[in-house]
Amino acid sequence: MRNVPALARTIEHGLLAAPGVTRASASPLTGNVLVFHEAETSVPELAQRIGALLRGEIKVESDDDASLRPWHAMDADDVAEALGTSRLRGLSNKECRQRLLSDGANTIPSLQRRSDWSIFVEQFQGLPVALLAGAAMLSLATGGLLEAGAILAVVGMNAAIGFGVERRTEQTISQLGGAGTKTARVIRSGNEIEVPTPKMVAGDLMVLRRGSVVPADGRLLRADMLMTSEAALTGESQPVEKSARPLADRNVPLADRSNMVYRGTVVTGGSGTALVVATGRHTEMGRVQRLVGAAIPPETPSMRQMRELGQQLVWVTLGATGVIFATGLLRGLALLQLVRSSLAVAVAAVPEGLPMVATTTLALGVEKMRQQGILVRRLEAIETLASVNVICFDKTGTLTHGTMSLDQVAIGNRSWRSRDGILVEADGPAREDGESPLARLLSIVSLCSDAKVLPSDQRSEISGSSTETALVEAALANGMDVAKLRLDHPRRAVQHRTESYRFMVSHHDAPSGSLIAMKGSPAEVLARCKWELGSAGARELLTPDRRSQIEALNHRLAERGLRVLAAAYLESDEPVERREQDAPEMEVANLVWLGLAGLSDPVRPGLRGVMAKLHRAGIHIVMLTGDQRCTAQTIGHEVGLSGTAALEVVDGAELDQLGSVELVCTARRAHAFARVTPSQKLRIVTALQHSGAVVAMIGDGINDSPALRAANVGIAIGRNEESAAREVADIFLANDDLGGLPVAIACGRATYVNIRKALHYILSTNTSEILLVLAATAAGVGEVLTPVQLLWINLVSDVLPGIGLAMGEPDPDIMDNAPNAADESILDRADFNRLAREAGLITAGASGAALLGAARYGAGSSQGSTMTFGSLVTGQLLHALTYANDGSPGRVGPPSSNRALLGIVGGSLLLQVLAMLVPGLRRILGVAPIGASDVAAMIAGGVLPYLANGRRLLKGKEPTSDMRMSSRAPDAASGEELPEPAAEQSVERTGAAPGPSVGASSRPIAADVLKIRKSRA
Q: What's this model's pTM, rounded to 2 decimal places?
């Protein structure tokens, strides 16, 4: 295999076809083969398969072979010949075994789940953690075992918190579903048998019946009123009518290949047979799964900002250590003292508490969301929600329930609408009596139906196509006893819907003779009617004007995105003429027109309110659907997709004609995309990211998985067995309620604010430590703080108050603010200036205590070090209170809402008192006894900086970055035209491109960022 790349690819493809193999990699450089497989997979069998592949005993088809042929454009005989099979008898058992060995099992490798080990390793990634590890190694090298142990303990605690939270979420999601072993009906050697789905091969003759899940991609040979639901693959909510005739156009879109059936779709009506043309990863479902693997998750804003901050801290640490070392050499200090002073600066410069506080803050946010039924599998995802300014929604199964229901009934000049399943007339009674026109229509559509009503303990269960199920459910919900109705009107003959006759008609016995019931296409049914049931229940002659009115009404209902069916009937005193149950082409005429029934895939309740909240938060909303444009427009208007702006819908057929720049511009202004494929959804998401948007994608099916993976935040919804969406998503709405989305975004924004507050606090206190050590070295007062004391300070007055800040309650108006700019630095110039001034005041207070101690007890005395130690801790703990008020750092005074921080600050002060008094702690920390006047000076050195910082901030002369971040959000639904992306700007895959953010073009913070960017340029 060495130096033979083609053979390496053959081995990879051949192994991926083996049962239980999830990933395979063959190297033509080393000759090594790496195989990831399920635990029950036999390793010796894998070795035998590799040998057979090397010897050429197993032939592997490339993706350019059989699975990509235009089967839909070929005649059925040509398809059978190409597959080497029989249209009538199928394959022999021997041939099936050989093909199973060469082609592999009919399985799609599951998406790689995160193992416990990978979750654990991810906790140690990032420069801040690397800096901590470096400081620990330096401590060990200089004999500081205690310091090294304390630093490593912080790293371990951080990893334990992150690992525990993420592993718990992964376990919860993995327990949500997964179907057991499935079987399929096939014809082999002329006999119909049942075989396990994984053992199906190309050339098998599938038998399809209503309710069955299609086990593999196939070309239809026979289709008897066959209807399939392809929502899982194409996003098309309506069942698709199938035909066995070849198509003339080789390039017809996937959703329009009416003579093909696809793996994972469901037969909702009729029956048929099909030849298997692709199995496993070669199916269309398999291709979508490969798109998921090819989609690269973008770097989150927090990951990028922490990486940048880590790089800055490296330079700060090196610079501060170099200054200390150079200053000491100039002053003639001993080498050992220089090393200890440099180590103290390194410990002070590295914020040991930063990773732990960030992880704890995210973990607290995850737990809050878990209580709302929102599961977060990656900690960074919750923070990324704060920057989301575009949300892409799948329609079927996400905005809608993915099931049909009766929405409206029109009879004569009367109309009924569904309210919680009950049909109600605007000016009529809440429920009609059994002799009303509405009851007559519901009885006719329930009789002219193949939907079965199955008795159950709680409520009746209905089995059938989605359309017929919806009609029978409406009859039951409106008080009709469908089982008794059918018992009183036994069916004697039926003609099912066909391509030529787009209606269904059934003949029934009736107590007073016979009854003909019809439902179907309004035009077809109307053409066979002579009479109409009037509003008062009397039969009236259908006039040309009345026919025109019915046709206009049908058009209006269709424009609303409803699937419209008509119902008609004919009663007779004579019994039903005896004929075959499935008699073809029954001649029916002179029927009585009943009315129209409009069915819809209902939207989830409360969506208009959800959209309004998202618009108010400055978020642009886009709907991606496989449905027609008119359906997209109807749903868009119903849920308030565009708010007060005009709804703009783009058809998927137009996307293939657009270049990259045109697609970016189109994606920025459109509110909905209709008739889009999974690959087009992926392309739309990446185009939005290239425009500078931070994109969240919400979906429920495998057709959404590539876009979910590529989005900055992937959010899955739904509890169906197709778990591909939730396997790739970062967040899962376990309660199946989109009402939790604004809650999740608000939690993400609050978490971002809390992390930023904690970060600013920790950096300001760490800076004060660096300045203090630098000042003491420059003044020649000796070692004012030992490395152990600095570690104590970092843990007691950095980590604990930082966690307290993370527990602050969010601003109640947080969803009225604009999203955070993803390309904004976590620290800007104003932040550095403010932090430097705050740190300078804290340093001045501690330096005053240090100078007083040196004057009283001499330079380098333990008493002076103790006064400095106590003053610095007091000043830092009180400084935390300036960040605590209602999410607005910069307001001084007791925090009214964050009681947790008050408790933590009080507890930390108590710990500091114990450190000054308990003999064991005093010995470890190097604390010496001091007098009452020294204690007063020490406390004054901590309190005065707090008062000075608070007085300066209260004047309001210095807005903090967090205050600037709370600028009012422009309503994303206002219709304001979004700026086009500049062609000369470079575009990053991270979703943080320099271009202005969608839906936030007028935000002050965006203008500030652009000014800073220009000044840097």
A: 0.64
